[in-house]
Amino acid sequence: MTGEVFKLRRAIAIVHLPKAGVRLEGYADTFRGNTENLVGLDFLYGLRLLLDGHAQKRASLNQPQAPA
After folding, report:
1. Which band of pLDDT confidence, cut at 50, 70 and 90, is reported for residue 37?
2. Among 12, 66, 6, 1, which residue's Cα sits nearest to residue 39?
3. Is 68 inside a domain boundary?
4. Max Cα separation, the chain?
């Protein structure tokens, strides 16, 4: 959006949650000076995460839906 160009560093990322029966593989990208971990949208699309901070003050992971 700003026109800046960043050289990214990429690593393979695996999230394995045995109790939820979830195993997701993808890439995590970062760049020099970044202090946060970044994951791509493809990775996030594989999760169904409910953040219910107001009512229950908890987060829950639900089974992903099969693609339509």
Report:
1. low
2. 12
3. no
4. 43
